[in-house]
């Protein structure tokens, strides 16, 4: 586990200067891994679909209406997550990613804790997410944090949709 005194989760962009490159690199790694897992590997970000390349090229514009949270170890961006703007009492968690070099240190849990706290602060009733069914470690983490599988709102094959109440205090591990 990470010594959480070293780990900080910050809103991006925010008062702490954090290079766009750190967020862009995390998003690129997320999308490259996802495409490879779907059986559609590409050599680099240039081979990704347009919508993903747009997120990497300019995350500030791509997520202008959302909140991007970044996990920092010192000055290094080691994880990120996007919390969408509320709609109909719900927000969605997207793009949760921890640099593989730093996995197993509680970074994803810290990002999810911050995401759920943010959602509760802005008055969201329900937080939802979708995850590929082969990402069993992520699904187990979400279940530990109180997410349950729900009816799909996304027609993509092999996608698991989950949700939980935004409030309710600290999440259980």
Helical run tally: 5
What fraction of the residues are assigned to beta strands by DSSP?
25-35%
Determine the structural class based on helices, strands and strand pairing.
Answer: alpha+beta
- Mean pLDDT score, rounded? 89
- What order do the strands of the largest sheet run in, or round the barrel if closed? 1-2-3-4-5-7-6
Order of helices and strands: EHHHEEEHEHEE
Percent of residues in helices comes to: 25-40%
Low-confidence stretches: 169-173
Rg result = 15 Å
Head-to-tail CA distance between termini: 13 Å
Molecular shape: globular
Task: Report the count of strand segments.
Answer: 7
Main beta sheet: 7 strands, mixed
Structure notes:
This protein is an alpha+beta fold and 173 residues long. Helix content is 31%, strand content 27%. The protein contains five helices and seven strands. It has helices at 20-37, 50-57, 59-62, 107-121, 136-144; strands spanning 7-12, 67-73, 76-83, 90-98, 126-132, 148-149, 159-165. The chain has a seven-stranded mixed sheet, with helices on both faces. The protein is globular, with a radius of gyration of 15 Å.
């Amino acid at each position: 586990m990470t010594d959480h005194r070293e780990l900080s989760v910050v809103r991006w962009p925010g008062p702490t200067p954090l290079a766009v490159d750190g967020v862009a690199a995390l998003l690129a790694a997320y999308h490259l891994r996802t495409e490879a897992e779907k059986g559609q590997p590409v050599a680099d970000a240039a081979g990704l679909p347009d919508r993903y390349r747009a997120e990497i090229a300019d995350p500030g514009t791509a997520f202008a209406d959302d909140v991007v949270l970044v996990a920092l170890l010192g000055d290094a961006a080691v994880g990120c997550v996007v919390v969408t703007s509320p709609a109909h009492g719900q927000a969605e968690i997207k793009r949760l990613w921890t640099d593989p070099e730093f996995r197993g240190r509680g970074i994803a849990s810290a990002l999810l804790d911050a995401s759920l706290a943010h959602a509760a602060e802005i008055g969201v009733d329900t937080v939802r997410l979708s995850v590929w069914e082969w990402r069993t470690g992520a699904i187990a983490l979400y279940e530990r944090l109180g997410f349950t599988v729900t009816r799909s709102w996304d027609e993509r094959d092999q996608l698991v949709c989950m949700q939980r109440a935004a409030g309710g205090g600290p999440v259980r591990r």
